[in-house]
Specification:
By secondary structure, the chain is mainly α. The chain has a domain at 44-85. The chain has helices spanning 44-62, 68-85. The protein is rod-shaped, with a radius of gyration of 44 Å.
């Protein structure tokens, strides 16, 4: 009688390389940018022109009833206050 030979195949499995643990990168959030307020610098000529125009329009609205220097000084005060305020 003929006997059958049975062969068993042995398989070898390769081990997978060890995985490194996943580390999350910590990303710091930046604070919102602060808006820089820059003061506008006016030249002497620009300031003079602004005062001149303000005095003229104030006098025109008033019907030129006062002394011109009173319009000028009032315009000077308001324009200088506006410039300082920024």
């Amino acid at each position: 009688m003929a006997t059958k030979k049975t062969t068993t195949k042995t398989t070898t499995t390769k081990k997978a390389p060890a995985k490194k643990p996943v580390t999350k990168k910590v990303v710091k959030k930046k604070a919102p940018a602060k808006k820089k307020v820059t003061k506008t610098k006016y030249t002497a000529e620009q300031v003079y022109s602004m005062i001149e125009q303000a005095a003229y329009f104030a006098a025109e609205n008033d019907g030129f009833s006062k002394d011109p220097t009173s319009y000028w000084t009032a315009a000077e005060k308001s324009i200088n206050a506006m410039i300082k305020k920024g």
